Automatic annotation (TrEMBL):
UniProt keyword Metal-binding, yes or no: no
Keyword check for Manganese: no
Enzyme class, broadest EC rank: oxidoreductase
Pathway per the UniProt entry: Steroid metabolism; Amino-acid degradation; L-isoleucine degradation; Lipid metabolism; bile acid biosynthesis
Record text on subunit structure and interactions: Homotetramer. Component of mitochondrial ribonuclease P, a complex composed of TRMT10C/MRPP1, HSD17B10/MRPP2 and PRORP/MRPP3. Interacts with TRMT10C/MRPP1; forming the MRPP1-MRPP2 subcomplex of the mitochondrial ribonuclease P complex.
GO MF annotation list: (3S)-3-hydroxyacyl-CoA dehydrogenase (NAD+) activity; 3-hydroxy-2-methylbutyryl-CoA dehydrogenase activity; androstan-3-alpha,17-beta-diol dehydrogenase (NAD+) activity; cholate 7-alpha-dehydrogenase (NAD+) activity; estradiol 17-beta-dehydrogenase [NAD(P)+] activity; testosterone dehydrogenase (NAD+) activity
Keywords: Oxidoreductase
Gene that specifies this protein: HSD17B10
One of the GO BP terms on file: fatty acid metabolic process
GO cellular-component term (any): mitochondrion
Family, as annotated: Belongs to the short-chain dehydrogenases/reductases (SDR) family.
Name used for this protein in its record: 3-hydroxyacyl-CoA dehydrogenase type-2
EC code(s) of this entry: 1.1.1.159, 1.1.1.178, 1.1.1.239, 1.1.1.35
Catalytic reactions on record: cortisone + NAD(+) = 17alpha-hydroxypregn-4-en-3,11,20-trione-21-al + NADH + H(+); ursodeoxycholate + NAD(+) = 7-oxolithocholate + NADH + H(+); chenodeoxycholate + NAD(+) = 7-oxolithocholate + NADH + H(+); 5alpha-androstane-3alpha,17beta-diol + NAD(+) = 17beta-hydroxy-5alpha-androstan-3-one + NADH + H(+)
Length: 278
């Protein structure tokens, strides 16, 4: 195994009972709550969970497509109309997982919003709206934290597996947390907040066997981006060094599955940028 700074660790000595380690988990029979599950990356995640034999509660706004998506996916999927910033709404979604599917093992935070506004418009002598800034921070950071703090209460009731594992939280930051562009002050700050809270929350929850991992996606072809003109989409795709295209939401969902299955991923943010920027 290669550690940080390229140090090569010798293999660990075998201990009695090593063969019984929990290792790879299967999604079959697990139950997840997915915020923003009615669209884009969240929806692809819901579809992946259902396809792998798990059950899923879509936590999304009442105005979203959540009800029809859940209906299409069948009995192992339910819709909880909810705003991630509301304590009552999120409590209801967590209760729905328990009441309809018996438990809660996974929470994936995909609900998120963005604005694209410069800090100051000097032509119009107009500062960035403080209300817009606060709204993005509230939905993306407080909303993510609200889902985490309420979901883990339910996960803590699970019988631990042989590793002591009770559940997993997966958050969605963005490449903008590290490489924000013009007009992304609010969005980048909100995603940086999600990156920043990943490790302390993982440390808080480690004694209960609940892992926390944050995905920082690059550009993905979701309704968020599909609304842009074809020319802009092609331009954005060309900025990606390799592969030079927008990601498919199914590829994000595949990573969610890998994180759930692999108990050695915890307290981390990835994959981040394709390579280091100087
Ligand atoms: N698409 C990309 O290229 C990309 C890149 C990096 C990060 N992300 C992040 O991934 C996440 C998903 O993005 P997407 O592209 O799938 O967007 P999307 O707009 O397709 O889906 C977002 C979903 O979140 C829901 N939502 C918004 N506010 C909510 C609230 N207050 N309560 C509950 N649900 C709410 C929306 O109704 C929608 O269904 C977001 O956090 C986004 O910032 C996306």
């Amino acid at each position: 195994m290669i550690g940080r700074r390229g140090v090569v660790f010798p293999p660990l000595p075998r201990r009695p009972g090593d063969g019984k380690m929990a290792a790879i988990r299967s999604l079959k029979g697990l139950v997840g709550v997915i915020s923003g599950g009615a669209s884009g990356l969240g929806r692809a995640t819901v579809e992946r969970l259902i396809g792998q034999g798990a059950s899923a509660v879509i936590l999304d706004l009442p105005s979203s497509e959540g009800a029809s998506v859940a209906k299409t996916l069948g009995d192992r999927c339910a819709f909880a109309p909810a705003d991630v910033t509301s304590e009552t709404d999120v409590r209801n979604a967590v209760s729905m997982a328990k009441e309809q599917f018996g438990r809660l093992d996974i929470a994936v935070n995909c609900a998120g919003i963005a604005v694209a506004v410069k800090t100051y418009n000097f032509k119009k002598d107009l500062p960035h709206s403080l209300e817009d800034f606060q709204r993005v921070i509230n939905v993306n950071i407080a909303g993510t934290f609200n889902v985490i703090r309420l979901a883990v209460g339910e996960m803590g009731k699970n019988e631990p597996d042989s590793d002591g594992h009770r559940g997993v939280i997966i958050n969605t930051a963005s490449v903008a947390a590290f490489d924000g562009q013009v007009g992304q002050a609010a969005y980048s700050a909100s995603k940086g907040g999600i990156v920043g809270m990943t490790l302390p929350i993982a440390r808080d929850l480690a004694p209960m066997g609940i892992r926390v991992v944050t995905i920082a996606p690059g550009l993905f072809a979701t309704p968020l981006l599909a609304g842009l003109p074809e020319k802009v989409q092609t331009f954005l795709a060309r900025q990606v060094p390799f592969p030079s295209r927008l990601g498919n939401p199914a590829e994000y969902a595949h990573l969610v599955q890998a994180i759930v299955e692999n108990p050695m991923l915890n307290g981390q943010v990835g994959p981040g940028l394709p390579f280091d920027h100087d």
